[in-house]
Every structure is written in C-alpha cells, then in structure tokens.
Design goal:
This protein is α/β, with parallel strands linked by helices and 543 residues long. Helices cover 33% and strands 15% of the residues. Strands 3-4-8-10-9-11-12-13-14-15-16 form an 11-stranded mixed beta sheet, sandwiched between helices. Helix 2 links the parallel strand 9 and strand 10. The radius of gyration is 23 Å and the shape is globular. The N terminus is likely disordered.
C-alpha cells in the first residue's frame, strides 16, 4: 500500500476555502436587476439568494400534474402559462409513506401534484468589459434518496446555492414515490403502447433531465454538459438512468453516492409480470378491487393510508423490469455494454449500516457458518472475528456491504468493464462529530456526505463542526464540480492542496480516494471482500 502524504489540517482548510470562492461571480455594488427567463412553457422570475451570488428558481412545473387519468402514466408535457411565474418557493413534496428524523421539508406539504424542479444559477458576471458571448456553465442535476418511498427537494441540506458558487448550475427535481411512482398492474401494461407498467418515478426523473436539456441554456447552462448525481435511492436512480434506453443522450456524466440497482439484499428488480401480480393482489386486499378505473377514482389519502397499513400487507413499491424504462435487469444491460458510455464517479461511506451492539466473535462466526456454509472460513478471512471487538467491526462492515456498499461496488466494476470511460471511486471515512440525529459512534453514516458535497454543513442541527469538516466539504465540492466540468475530479487545477484522485481500474491498482482529514488515493484494500461476495451473490467479478 502506498504511504499517504500527510497535510497540515489548518493549511488544508485555509487554502481549500478559496477553491470555489475563486469561481464565485463578481457582484456589482449597485442592486442587481433580475429579468424574466423564457423557457418552453412560459416565463419565470427568480429570486436572489441572501449573498446575491446566485439566482434561485423554485417550484417550476416540468410535467403535467399526475392526477386523475394521469395517475400511473408516464409524465406528460406541462401546459404553458401566460403570465410570468414567480418561482420563489419550493413546490409540494410528493406524497410518501414513512420518513426519517433528519428529513425536514420546507415546502407547502405533501401533494400528488408535485412534479416540479428547482434551478440555482450563478449571477452573470458584472465584470467590465462583459464578454460578448459568455461561456455556458456545466449543469448538475440532483436526485434525492429515500428508498423510493420518501424524500423531497426542499431540505436545507440539498440547497444548491452553495454548490453553484463553484461555477455550475444546480437543478433538483421531485419525482413520484411509493404506490404513486412504482405500482404495476396488468391494466397499466394493457393501456401502454409499450406494454409496460411501473417505474413512473424513474420516468419522472428522465422527464426532468429532458426538461433541463431543453431549457437550461436560458439560465446560462450548457445542455451538452449535464451531470446527474444522487444519493442512496438517488444513486440507485443514477445507475438506472445510465442503463435506460429512454434516457440515452440526455446527460454526459454521472455521480453516485451510496447506491446502485444491482441485484443485492437491498433491492432485486422483479420482472413486470411478477410486480403486476404482487401489486394487484395488494389492491384486492386493500380495496377489494384491482381495477384501474376504480383505483384512479380513489383519493391520494385513501391510497397512501392503505399503502402504509400493515393490515393490507403492502409490497415494496419500487422499480421493476417494466419493458420500457428498463428492458432487462440493470446488471444485464451493463454486462452487454448497452449502458451510456460516460465518466462515472461513485463510492460509499465507511459506516453505511450497523450490526447489533451485542455481536460477539462466537455469534458472528455462527452467523457466517449458517449463511455461507462450506465457505464460512473464506468469509471470515475477509471479515475476521478473532476477538469480540473485531467481530463487531466486521459485523458492521458486513451490514453496510449487504445494505448498499456491495451493490455500489458491483455497479462501478461493471462500468469499468464495459462503460468505455473513466471511473473514479471514493470512500468517505471522516468520523462524524455527531449531531441531533446521529451519535459520534455512528462514524461516517449513510447519507453523511450530502452536506459535505453541497456545502451545507451549517444546516445540520447541533453539529459540532471542526476545521476538518469545512476543509473536506470544500474539497468535495471542488472535486464534484470539477468532474461536472471536465469528467475528471482533478479538473484543470495543479494546486497541490487538491490531492490527486487517480482513476479506478486494474492498470492503476484499483485506486480509491479516501475522503477524510487526510485525503489521498490508495489501492483498494477491501477488494478481496467484494470479490468473495461476488462469488456468493451471483455477480460477475473483475479480476
């Protein structure tokens, strides 16, 4: 293993804060006059962020309200509006089942009419003389996570204004969730010209990306330089958008944070007919009928109530192999090299999940023998359990791998093999200082990196921020936006404060950038672990 070059944390922080600041727009002293923006459905007027460096446009409809006869249909074009739309406030988040303590929305509340998006665009430079043909900016389109059952764009941690300081335009969209976004029924396939049902939430995402492609030039963005990025279910969505034939050509780069739809314990895609059978059986239990006409007459509240009721045994309303958005499993699409051949950046966090605190060497060894049988010794070679403390650490590692890390690894491996473009992998491992919803003991937990990427650490309640947190946030914002600009997280910078991020491939020794207080690219020490899991869980593994 290559030694990691140490860097003084204070120097790292002092210099890192200048990275995106250097890209921030020069602001005139006199008040900025905002003008309406013309898009294909009408005119918009945005609002300045408090620092007057970014114009925010919120709650822009990108598709027709998916209600009435449009419930469980692919997104349809939005109607034009005649007057200027004052895009000041977030649109409602999509109706959802469940939630998480750290998800706090700042919007009008849940609604079935929720297909809106938001744009954060840097204020055009006021430097004199102004260029006659200002360069179009790279665009980053964010897809939120939440297990395809919850989530929304109005969380403070996903505020795009600070990332826009790095010289990019940031877009985020709401998409249908749960029963509204992913129910499949035989009648839905029958009314579809493509004999498809399900995946409406994924098609919403595609429609939003297509909207960006058509309209982003009006905001100063480059329609030929769009990067999609997301976390958890958002990252799973990224892996799916890359695979989908209907999304082909809409974006040029992709970033995935902790998640991919590759068959795993966290998600296995059923064929359309299987999903239809399961969902129709649920509708019969919940409402006494699975007839599509009847289900479309129900109120959104009636549907969500039954979708959350244990008594109706609701299925997991999640993606399926629908025949339109996904003609095959995502793993098969990648194996055949039919995905988009674009640069990909991805990775996961060091503590994605946790095992029971009372795990011992004896209990973990017994679990290994029960689950892996004759291969238990090979499992324990990569998840050692010689002491209780070591067993607990291995149990936590295995829980995180089972939950999300292994599927993310399998995705990146597939993209390396058949994607035809560079792949960059990271491992986010800065120990958490804790906050209102997370303890210090949780380490770098699932979703921990979001605020670091967006530069929104101050939005996390009761977080005891340290200099290394802000330094790493600035570095990550720069890496992510460099990648959006050039397809290389190193960008064009030769500044030594930006540790070199080496591509992830066999020729380079499978380099992984460790994102912590001392960032550096080092060979992947965990590779034997994932190669073992690949033999057990049916994935083709790289050598």
């Amino acid at each position: 293993m290559h030694p990691r070059r140490r860097m003084d944390r204070t120097a790292l922080y002092t210099l890192a804060i200048s990275l995106c600041a250097a890209a921030a727009t020069t602001i005139a002293q006199k008040p900025i006059q905002l003008r309406p923006v013309q898009i294909d459905s009408g005119k918009l007027l945005g609002v300045l962020t408090p620092d007057q460096k970014v114009i925010a446009y919120k709650g822009i409809p990108y598709a027709a309200p998916p209600v009435g006869d449009l419930r469980w249909r692919p997104p349809q074009p939005v109607s034009r509006w005649k007057h200027i739309l004052f895009a000041r406030d977030f649109g409602p988040h999509c109706i959802q089942s469940g939630g998480y303590a750290d998800m706090v929305f700042h919007d009008p509340g849940p609604s079935e009419d929720c297909l809106t998006l938001n744009v954060w665009a840097p204020v055009p430079s006021t430097a004199k003389p102004a260029p006659k043909h200002p360069a179009l900016l790279p665009v980053m389109v964010w897809i939120y996570g939440g297990g395809f059952t919850t989530g929304g764009t109005s969380e403070n941690r996903q505020d795009g204004q600070f990332l826009a300081h790095c010289g990019v335009i940031v877009v985020s969209m709401n998409y249908r969730l749960g029963v509204f976004g992913f129910m499949a029924l035989p009648e839905l396939a029958a009314e579809s010209a493509n004999n498809a049902s399900g995946n409406y939430g994924l098609m919403d995402q595609t429609a939003a990306i297509a909207w960006v492609r058509r309209n982003i030039a009006a905001f100063g963005g480059d329609p030929a330089n769009i990067t999609i990025f997301g976390e958890s279910a958002g990252s799973q969505s990224v892996s799916a958008q890359i695979a989908s034939p209907i999304a082909k050509g809409l974006f040029s780069k992709a970033i995935g944070e902790s998640g991919a739809i590759f068959d795993s314990f966290s998600m296995t895609l059923p064929p359309r007919q299987q999903a239809e059978q399961t969902d129709a059986a649920w509708a019969e239990r919940a409402f006494g009928s699975s007839r599509l006409f009847y289900l479309r007459t129900l109120t959104a509240d009636e549907l969500i109530e039954k979708a959350m009721a244990r008594t109706t045994q609701p299925p997991r309303f999640q993606p399926d192999i629908d025949g339109l958005f996904l003609p095959d499993s995502i793993a098969n699409i990648y194996a055949a090299g039919l995905q988009a051949h674009i640069p990909v950046l991805g990775g996961w966090n060091s503590n994605e999940s946790r095992a029971p605190a009372n795990t011992t060497a004896a209990s973990f060894t017994a679990q290994a023998q029960q689950e892996f049988g004759a291969d238990a010794d090979a499992f324990l070679a990569v998840y050692p359990a010689t002491t209780d403390a070591e067993a607990l650490q291995s149990a936590n590692d295995f829980a995180g791998d089972r939950f999300i890390a292994f599927s993310t690894w399998a995705w990146l491996e597939a993209q390396v093999r058949t994607g035809g473009a560079p792949v960059y992998r990271y491992f986010f491992a800065l120990p958490s200082p804790g906050d209102r919803n997370h303890t210090v003991a949780q380490g770098a937990f699932h979703s921990d990196e979001i605020e670091y990427v967006f530069g929104t650490l101050d939005s996390r309640p009761e977080m005891a921020l340290r200099p290394e947190d802000r330094a790493l946030s600035d570095l990550m914002s720069q890496y992510w936006t460099n990648f959006a600009k050039t397809g290389n997280p190193n960008g064009d910078s030769t500044d030594p404060i930006l540790p070199r991020w080496l591509p992830y491939n066999a020729a380079g020794g499978w380099q992984v950038l460790h994102l912590d207080a001392n960032p550096a690219s080092i060979p992947d020490a965990l590779r034997p672990r994932y190669l073992f899991l690949a033999t057990q869980w049916g994935h083709a593994a790289g050598k």
